[in-house]
Amino acid sequence: MRVVWQLLAVAAVAFLGGQGIAAVDGKPWLTLAVGTVTAVLALLVYGWVVRRTEHRSPVEVATRGAAPTLGLGTLIGIAVFGLVILQLATNGYYEFNGRGSTTGVVGIVGFMAAAAVTEELLFRGVLFRIVEERTGTWIAMTLTAVLFGAYHLANPDATLWGALAVAIEAGGMLTAAYIATRKLWVPIGVHFGWNFAAAGIFSSEVSGNGANQGLLDTAAKGPDLVTGGEFGPEGSVFSVLFCVLAALAFLWLARRRGHLKPRTRRADRPDTALTLPR
């Protein structure tokens, strides 16, 4: 039952935050404020519900050392997405038409902060972490990747290939970032950095959610398999390639640190709380 309580708690914050962001659509500074509040509140609620249902300190969101690891993750996310755009541009599939909108970036920061935090808490903090206790690292990684990809099928311009690409990219790279560090700050940073680079810098579509106006005015042209089409560059084979390489690097680090977990027998599973205590 703890997985249900934790999912409901974080999902409630994500829903309310999404409604708030939709209500201030077109107002960048308000979007930044609402998105930031949503992200902070989601972290606080996650910490609270983990304490209540598991009777432990939520070390995966401990604030000590959070800033540098969050910053590192953000830089990694921007760099990996930048490599995707570099490949598209050098092969003639991406063109730059000048400057975009500085004001629009403000709202994108808030929106992407809320999305990165709530999605990482739900899929890595709750689902992957708890499923891994039962099934081990590899099965949990596969199952949550499939769920994460399916989650993106609800987006306006979603495609089956785009969802599969997201499952491979995020289910691999972001989950591997969590496994390597056993903290949520790096995957949150990578998630935010990737999304911010896509929407806030290169004005690309993100996971089939429509066009964005970031710092640069750009346009993609070419086969959907290469550019991602209306789904955005996340549907590009270049994104799959670079995210898989990043995931392998994180998994190599996780193996060196002894963070990969085998499937546990029922008798070896920890005794966890099933209900909220009074």
From TrEMBL:
Pfam families assigned: Rce1-like
Spans through the membrane: 32-49, 70-90, 102-123, 135-154, 160-179, 184-202, 235-254
Domain (CAAX prenyl protease 2/Lysostaphin resistance protein A-like) ranges: 105-196
InterPro entries to which the protein is assigned, alphabetical: Rce1/LyrA-like_dom (IPR003675)
Keywords: Membrane, Transmembrane, Transmembrane helix
Family annotation (PANTHER family): MEMBRANE-ASSOCIATED PROTEASE-RELATED, PROTEASE
Designated name of the protein: Type II CAAX endopeptidase family protein
Source species taxonomy: Bacteria, Bacillati, Actinomycetota, Actinomycetes, Kitasatosporales
